[in-house]
Each structure stands twice: as C-alpha cells, then as structure tokens.
Amino acid sequence: MTGSARRHTSGPVVVDLRAVQTPDSRGRGISRYAYEFTAALERHRPDLVCRYLLAPDWPPPGDINRLTQTGKVMYAGTPGSLPDCARVYHTLSPFELAVPTTAIWPSEVEHRGLSFSATVYDLIPLRHSDLYLRDARQRIRYKARCEVLRLADALLAISTETKADVVDLLSVEAAAITVVGSGRPHGMARPQDVSVAVATARSLVPGLEERFILYPGGSDARKNLDGLISAYGLLPAGLRSTYQLVVCCDLPELAANHYRHLASSLGVGDRLLLPGYVSDLAVEALYQSAAVMCFPSLAEGFCLPIA
Questions:
Q1: How far apart are CA 142 and CA 96, in angstroms?
Q2: How big is the CA angle at 189 (ends 186 and 191), to the nearest 5 degrees?
Q3: From CA 299, how far away is CA 91, in angstroms rounded?
Q4: pLDDT in tens, 149-191
C-alpha cells in the first residue's frame, strides 16, 4: 500500500499502526490518537519515519490518505516492510489482546537488532484487576503485554499519571519513560457560527434536538454511563425537557439496550439519544453545538475527549 507522492523515506523509525484497524482499538480513542500522532509526525518530522505498518489480516482502516500519500504505508510482513535503514520499531497499541505478542513485538525486530518502543495509554485494567482481569485467560494475555513493556527499550506515556503507574505497577525505570501528552485532533476548532454547527449536527445525527448534553464516551464500566443516566434522571423536569442527553459512542447492542432500559426505568427514556458510532464530521459538529459537554468517567489515562 503506497501512494504516488513519495518523500524522504530513510528515517530510522518503523511505526506499527495496526491500532487503526484492530477490534480492540478501531473506533475508539486509541485509534484516533494513533492516527493523529502519526499524522503529526508527518507534518513536523517526516524525516524520522520510514514505514507505517498495517496488519494484513484485519479490515482496511478508514480514511488515512494523509499517510498513504507519503508512500510509507505497507502491510507488516511484506517485502520491504522493515527496510535496511530501520533502527527503531514503535508500536502504538501494545495491549491488543486479540493478537499474539509476536504481532506486537515481531521476532524479526529482535533478530535485526532494532530497538523496541511502545506508547502506553493507561494501566487501568491492572490498577483495577478485580474489575477487568477476573477472567484467567484475559489476565494472562494482559500480563504478557505488561512483560513486553518491561522489556522495551523505551516507552512513551500519554500523561504523568500513566508514567507513574508504569513505574509503580511494572517497576520500569522512570528514565526509560517519556511523557508525550495529547491534544485535540488536527482540524477540531471552535465554530465560526454555532447555529450552522447545530444545523450540521442535526442533519448528520437523526433524532438530535437543538439543545443537548453531550457525552462522547464508551461502555466500559469506568466510563460511568449508569451514573450519568441516573444523574440525568434526577434533574428537574424542566431541565430534562430542555436538554436532551446524547451518548455518542460505538455501543454493542446489548449495552445500548441496557442503557435504554435504565433510562426508561427512570422516566427519561424519551430524552436519551444513542446515535452509536458517527462520522468525524458529525463528532466535530456535536462538539461545536453542544450546550453542555459531560464526562463523568472514573478513570482515564489522559482523557482525549475533554482535550
């Protein structure tokens, strides 16, 4: 997978970009971060990266034209995917539990003597193992990824809190971890005209009302959706009738049914909108036109939605 426009490709870094494809990450904040991180690399330091690798056994990612146009995007394992100039192999999602550890840290990387590094978003499952790692097989897979991080030559943490957890829970030397932070996606900006943003959002999200409370979250227990809906149900009737509650994220149908039932039991079933996964344009319009943005999460590595 290469584009027609080619730039300097002799940089020392190979970036594993499978986070934009895999079931664990696709459509979530990690996928968003991974793509924006690599797009920023190409904007500011295109000389650093020689390859961006995708997984050949996962569905193609969405629109990554900014990267494919560089001529650096290839499928992992194909001829030329690890060029002679490569010195560092960096994975943007080390906790992909649906793939073997050899996909996270390929044997060829070690055989070639490349340094290995990874981006760490959080260690919330390890910090709250009673909630996330009760299943023995899940626990084994997760802890195997923790060992990969322990053996890495360097780690990038998205927050000081994440770095502290890596030092505390994995006993990694602080000097081996660099905090790189996060930020808003390139192009996300305040609206020039809120009324236009509202009209755009309503045209893209069926059932959306003019005034609404936005929650751009997820269905993980730590996201506290139950608490949000319960709190919304406690609002005075006048506020509930004025402001619709919009939970915008990719929800499995069973989870969506649970939240609809909870809202109905609280008498606010007709005030909850679950649009599911929406386009980037719709997300931008929702952010720009929301009356209130609410994020009641109990734990985050950085909290990209707020940024």
A1: 9
A2: 150
A3: 23
A4: 999 999 999 999 999 999 999 999 999 999 998 777 666 778 8
The token pair that represents 208 in the structure block: 């959306």
Where are the extended beta strands (E) located within 76-148?
Answer: 88-91, 115-120
pTM of this prediction? 0.77
Q: Give the dihedral of Cα atoms 285, 228, 134, 169; nearest 10 deg.
A: 70
How far, in Å, CA of 7 to CA of 71, rounded? Answer: 7
Residues ≥6 apart with Cβ < 8 Å to 70: 3, 5, 6, 7, 9, 42, 46, 52
Residue 290 Ramachandran class (φ > 0 left, ψ -120 to 50 alpha, else beta): beta
Residue found under tokens 């606010």: 268
Place of tokens 């990719």: 250
From 89, 101, 281, select the one nearest 196 (Cα to Cα): 281
Give dist(CA 187, CA 47) in Å, integer: 23
Place of tokens 């009209």: 199
The DSSP code for 185 is P
pLDDT digit string, tens, across residues 190-217: 888 889 999 999 999 999 999 999 998 7
Q: How far apart are CA 48 and CA 241, in angstroms?
A: 53
Measured CA to CA, the distance from residue 218 to residue 32 in angstroms comes to 14
Q: Which residues pair with 178 in a beta bridge?
A: 156
Please tell me what DSSP assigns to residue 138: H
Q: What is the token pair recorded at 207?
A: 């059932």
